[in-house]
Amino acid sequence: MVWNEQLKRNIPENWKVVPLSTVLNFKSGFSFSSDLYVTEGKYKLLTIKNVQDSGINLNVDNYINDVPSNVPDYCFLKVNDILMSLTGNVGRIGIMYDSGCLLNQRVALAKSVNEDLHSFVYFLLKSDIIRKQYETIANGSSQKNLSPVESENILIAYNEQIAIHFASVTNKHLKIIVSNLAENEKLIHLRDWLLPMLMNGQATISD
Prior knowledge:
It contains four helices and 15 strands. It has helices spanning 118-125, 128-137, 148-153, 160-199, and strands spanning 2-4, 9-11, 16-19, 24-28, 37-38, 43-46, 51-52, 55-56, 63-64, 76-77, 82-85, 93-95, 101-103, 107-112, 155-158. Helix 1 packs across helix 4.
């Protein structure tokens, strides 16, 4: 380990100090008009409320049926997409485990520059050292706000070979995490469907 003056801490010898944009880009969500909101619909609208410390919560307040033609393709969220909150409790990270959702403003999609680094990007953004940097640079009088551009510009210690190796080792673990999150969501829906039936006697549990 050697002292690095830019980061003000020790880093492994022969590692580089690079901006986070070396490994990922942040893409901001779309500003959907409230006129499009419906209580039930085709797409769930994910906001900063849905990106929690525990991950993505798919319980939404609003749905959208009619999507404007100028909504970027990346706002149609896919399984394994990594999201980050940009307002309020900034730097919260979650990974998508279902489809049929739209990305609202003040939530960013973290897109790996190299798909081989996907799990590295996820676990890097989940680290305390990145979260603390975001809390430091966030600004705002009433609530904190992060700029996607500034978020990409923070400096990290980096070794590409090790990062790719780390991703290859952890990729299977991230797949298990996503699979478990999806299974938990199914069990929650089953519980919410079954519990009222048990309470009013429409269903019983045999010994």
